[in-house]
Specification:
8 helices
Length: 352
């Protein structure tokens, strides 16, 4: 139903006579004001039943938003943090995170949608014209304000009472330091912990799967093996923190295939050891192509050439993988000859 279908006596009274009016151009005003277009009444302005329907629609959105908020609270209290569910097409995901995001998103969306529908259908849509007036104060007001300011500054004694003035400036300057002190509550400073791992001279390379130290003959050419430093056990309370930095992959190449001189010097009989942590965002590298000697990060497809210093040949990673210098001890086991020469994982602000 449109306004043309309603008898003239049922239409609301005109609220703004400027609608549809125009100004003509003349010598003083060569650019005529086009005015506002004629106002068209909405169906809700004409039919009270349509207005009631819009009112019920808005109220329904707000009620559903309240239910969404209640669902958010119930989910937070009731759903275990480690519960997993299958959601098509996402796949397996954390049930708590999915439910909290869904209920919170629905609640916020319905509040916004209800407010928009309310404004578009029930609130007045008549455009109002308010002529602008000069914003600047008159010269008399400006002169009075400046005179009052000078009088106040003189009466405050800021110029004469230097002791008060200087101590006030000192108090204002020192007060923000209390907020700086509160930064200590964020936790201890990392210091150099991000630069060092558990690897040290003499640490044996232990197979992650068998938990046994490795000999050179245990590693075949073209194979990929994941190792950890000797002494790090899965039941240790800090295992996840330490293995995140100390995880290493070892690959055996033909010594003649190694192009980088430092890589060759830090290897043993073609066995090279590199950090397993991608230098892009820290994903674990787990894919290796023995024909090309390329290691691939499955997260964002950063590709490293393990025969040429693990340099980046594709993808968003910005640095080669750090290499671990290795050798063989008297018992014939592979051992580390020190820690990594640079921080593992993604670059951080202390690098360089």
């Amino acid at each position: 139903m449109s306004s043309q279908d309603i008898p003239e006596e049922n239409l609301p009274a005109a609220q703004d006579h400027a609608h549809g009016s125009v100004a003509l151009a003349d010598t003083e005003n060569p650019f005529a004001d086009p005015g506002l277009p004629p106002h068209e009444h909405r169906i809700q302005d004409i039919d009270e039943r349509a207005a009631k329907r819009s009112e019920r629609t808005v109220a329904l959105m707000f009620v559903l938003s309240m239910l969404g908020t209640i669902g958010f609270i119930v989910a937070y209290v009731m759903i275990p943090v480690d519960k997993s569910i299958y959601v098509w097409p996402i796949g397996h995901t954390n049930a708590l995170n999915f439910t909290l995001g869904l209920t919170l998103g629905v609640s916020l969306f319905l509040i916004g949608a209800g407010a928009v529908h309310w404004a578009r259908t029930l609130m007045s849509d008549v455009e109002m014209v308010d002529e602008r007036h000069p914003i600047a104060a008159s010269p008399e007001v400006k002169a009075k304000v400046m005179a009052d300011f000078r009088q106040g500054a003189e009466e405050s004694g800021m110029g004469r009472r230097k002791l008060i003035r200087n101590t006030m400036f000192g108090a204002l300057a020192l007060f923000p330091l209390s907020g700086v002190v509160l930064l200590g509550g964020l936790g201890p400073a990392p210091g150099t912990k991000l630069r060092h791992t558990l690897w040290a001279k003499g640490k044996l390379l232990v197979n992650m799967n068998t938990d046994e130290p490795l000999r050179p003959e245990d590693i075949a050419v073209g194979s990929l093996t994941f190792v950890k430093p000797e002494g790090l056990e899965e039941h240790d309370h800090d295992f996840l923190v330490e293995i995140t930095k100390a995880a290493v992959m070892i690959v055996r190449l033909q010594p003649g295939d190694i192009k980088d001189k430092q890589e060759l010097a830090w290897s043993h009989d073609g066995i090279v050891a590199y950090s397993k942590v991608c230098t892009h965002v820290g994903c674990p590298i787990s894919l290796y192509e023995q024909q090309t000697h390329h290691a691939l990060c499955p997260c964002h497809q950063s590709t490293f050439d393990l025969s040429d210093g693990a340099r980046v040949i594709f993808g968003p990673a910005g640095h080669p993988l750090p290499q671990l210098r290795i050798g063989v001890n008297k018992e014939g086991y592979l051992e580390a000859l020190g820690d990594f020469d640079e921080p593992v994982g993604p670059a951080f602000w202390e690098r360089g």
